[in-house]
Amino acid sequence: MPKDKKERPEDMLSFDELKDKVQPNDEESDPEVAALLDSLRDVAPPAEEAPKEEEKPADPPKEAPSEEENYKSIYNDVLRSVMQNTETSEKTTRKSKFLSDESQFVDVTDRYESFADLHAQPEPEKNPAEETASAEAGDTATESPEAPEEEKQYRTFNEIFKSGLRKIFPNKHDTVGEGIRKAIADLSVIALVACGIYFGVYAYQSHAAKAQQAEIEGQIISDDTASSESDMWAQFFAQYPNIQLPDGMMAKYAYLYAINQDLVGWIKIPNSIIDVQVVQTTDNTSYLKKDFYGNYSRYGCPYMDYRNDPKYLGKNTIIYGHHMSDGLVFADLTKYKTIEGFQESPVIQFDTLFRSYTFKVYAVIITNSRAEDDNDYIFNYAVTDFGSDEAFMEYIAALDERKLYTTGVDIQPDDKLLTLQTCTYEFSDARLVVIGRMVRDGESTSVDTSLAVENPSPRYPQAWYDKKGQTNPYADAEKWMP
User: Fold this and answer.
1) What's the chain's average pLDDT?
2) How far is CA 163 from the centre of its chain?
3) Has residue 109 got a pLDDT over 50?
4) pTM assigned to the model
5) Distance (Å, whole) CA 41 – CA 431
6) Residue 208 pLDDT > 90, yes or no?
7) For 198, phi and psi rounded to 5 degrees?
8) CATH assignment of 260-468, among 1.20.59.20, 2.30.40.10, 2.40.260.10, 3.30.413.10
9) 104 has which bridge partners?
10) Which of 105-114, 185-194, 210-219, 311-320 has the highest mean pLDDT?
11) For residues 475 and 418, what is the distance between their CA atoms, to the nearest angstrom?
12) 144-147 long-range CB contacts below 8 Å, 24 or more apart?
């Protein structure tokens, strides 16, 4: 229970009573004390301390202090209160300013705190009088928000760059696990970027090859043009007066020939994407990686065997072309691996510069290009001249043994063949070969595809059986040689 007010008369005295008590009127006044007391007229007395829950046992009674001791004690208390109040007021006034537009306090001394000792210092113990003065000052001041964080120090570009490299690539500061993790991540990113670049280049080359082929096709003069052949020649020589053309050349290919004199013809297979020019040079390698305009290209350009006669087709005319994964050049020959593919495209159209020909598909075989893939033997389908009808028919018998199916098309000793070759992937360096027989004079170009019958056991190279895990039934069979 709180004590009665009259039990603490020093707390309840008015200022004048306090002044009279400290400096009675009947004695001579101390001018310094009087001036100090006058300056404290408006200072609020310290707040009354909250009563404690449990009172300690009362100390044994002490002797009452003398009047002089009371005076000194009161004087010291008043002086300490003044000093505490003045220090708090000055600190608050100098350090913080109030911004009315943002309704917050901004500490204007923060820019200088970066030079101070940042180690935490123990807070000094406060006596009860100091805590009371701080509480009173806090009651009258608006609570300020936390001081803004210390300004960030800007780093140079080299520092940022080196820091980024250390985060991405393994370095001596990493643990073993962290170094391995970074190495795997870096390799994955490099592989991903490389694949992206590869497929990007691949897509670009494919698009460029298709655009180039469309441009080349646009140079062919259509057969249904309204102009007469004499008019077409006149128009051509007006544009290319110095081009020497072969005698008897068809006008439809004159502009293509003016672009590249290696042109020898054009091959087209109905119901397929094969519709492309054919060139010829003095070897079988020049156009493997060169396009029709003479520029490097992984698509190359279909070319006729250098031993063939491009004007008077011989016994066996051979044309080579790449099997591109995007379906260009000779990739669509793979349709002939099945009877259904043959039934869609049973004929092949081939134009030389002088005449148009049609060939009926006779046989389709899969063979090797390396001797070690078939017991030191290569079936030589690239024979241009057999020397005799008997040798030619022996070759046809060797084809019959290897063909995937019978098409119903027959062959006679005086017939001529067209052989198309491209890559296939049944085993390493395998070759897909499609053989057509030239339509005879007066013969229909149509083919009865219902006569096609599958060969139950075509002869493959040894590598094919090894890949399938099968026994080669032709391992000891006769090896045809031209």
Assistant:
1) 80
2) 24
3) no
4) 0.64
5) 116
6) no
7) -60, -50
8) 2.40.260.10
9) 99
10) 311-320
11) 29
12) 144/96, 144/104, 144/105, 145/104, 145/105, 147/107, 147/110
